[in-house]
Amino acid sequence: MKQDATRNPAYTVDCEDFVHVVEFNPFESGDSGNLIAYGGNNYVVIGICTFQEEEADIEGIQYKTLRTFHHGVRVDGIAWSPETRLDSLPPVIKFCTSASDLKIRLFTSDLQDKNEYKVLEGHSDFINSLAFDPKEGQEIASVSDDHTCRIWNLEGRQTAHFVLHSPGMSVCWHPEENFKLMVAEKNGAIRFYDLVTHQAVLSLESEQIPLMSAHWCLKNTFKVGAVAGNDWLIWDITRSSYPQETRPVHMDRAYLFRWSAISESLFATTGYPGKVASQFQIHHLGHPQPILAGSVAVGAGLSWHRTLPLCVLGGDRKLSFWVTEV
After folding, report:
1. Which residue ranges make up each domain of the chain?
2. What is the largest CA-CA distance in the chain?
3. Which pLDDT score, from 0 to 100, does residue 3 have?
4. Is 62 exposed, middle or buried (0-12, 13-18, 19+ CB in 10 A)?
5. Contact 61/43 with Cβ under 8 angstroms?
6. CA-to-CA distance for 183 and 149, rounded, in angstroms?
7. CA within 20 to 30 Å of 159's CA: 9, 36, 194, 285, which one?
8. What is the CB neighbour count within 10 angstroms for residue 325?
9. What is the mean pLDDT of residues 223-242?
10. Residue 179 has pLDDT above 80, yes or no
11. Which InterPro entries has this protein been placed in (predicted)?
12. Alpha carbon distance 249, 247 (integer Å)
């Protein structure tokens, strides 16, 4: 099915509750299917999905829930660990969550009898973003409204702590050099930290505020994208600390920015959630207008597939998947 210009998703999966956050596993897990995690008001669901774009004998989407984890409190963020493997015996599912009680939970499961979690405590306000170090998976970075970025080991001990000038909105590890960390603040500053020296080594400025979300481009780590105010912004860190490109995108304030995992020209943005419908757009840097626009009833979360030009949004009791061209 070729994606047409309509605003409807290509595929949907029904869920039992409101989906606050959804994340494809960005790492190779040793299985042809794609692991996906989504969080609701008191649970996290781990599922696996395969799309007709990958396997000719599948019509649309094939989805299966592998395990539901009781969470007890609203899930606000999910980050996958690169240690997750489906081809090991037993399999390893490892991820962490941030929650409305200001705690991080690190989950480990073999999808059978072993289901453990550890609580990481220290933030004193809402946690806006968290990420595993992508090479080894031995550290977790988190940023919060408490004006800090914290690095944790898997035992739950803080190994580094950076004081920010405003709420921390996004945190990303460099895909290859895991001593480099990008932190985006609500005041429009994006800083890159060296985790060996614990110093900021580079900073970017958004001329718009509030900055709500920023993302490091995995296909070209000289590129950083963000949404601030109503606009999306793209930096080339080799050229200037100010954005190279900026464009108004969402009338009701922009909310999330995510680069595609397969192209340095493809990215998606969402408008502010909580209205009747949340606007969602896919952009290509070669095109002046969005190449795809959709809307989700009270959308939340945004994540790209690891190998396809396909992204997912959560929302009211469903996951919605959009497919585009590269």
Report:
1. 8-121+298-325
2. 53
3. 40
4. middle
5. no
6. 8
7. 36
8. 11
9. 96
10. yes
11. NUP37 (IPR037626), WD40/YVTN_repeat-like_dom_sf (IPR015943), WD40_repeat_CS (IPR019775), WD40_repeat_dom_sf (IPR036322), WD40_rpt (IPR001680)
12. 6
Q: What CATH number should be reported for the domain whose range is 8-121+298-325?
A: 2.130.10.10
Q: Which of 120, 117, 83 is nearest to 98 (CA)?
A: 120
* Closest by CA position to 103, among listed 62, 64, 149, 144: 144
- One-letter amino acid at 93 equals I
Phi then psi for residue 120, to 5 deg, are: -110, 115
**Are 313 and 301 a contacting pair, CB within 8 Å?**
yes
pTM of the model: 0.95
How many residues are present in the chain? 326
- Residues 6+ away with beta carbon under 8 Å from 234: 223, 224, 225, 243, 244, 245, 246, 285
Name the residue among 151, 30, 135, 163 with its Cα closest to residue 84: 30
Which tokens go with 160? 């580094």
For 256-299, how does the pLDDT look when each residue is reduced to its tens digit (9 = 90+)? 999 999 999 999 999 987 656 778 999 999 898 999 988 887 67
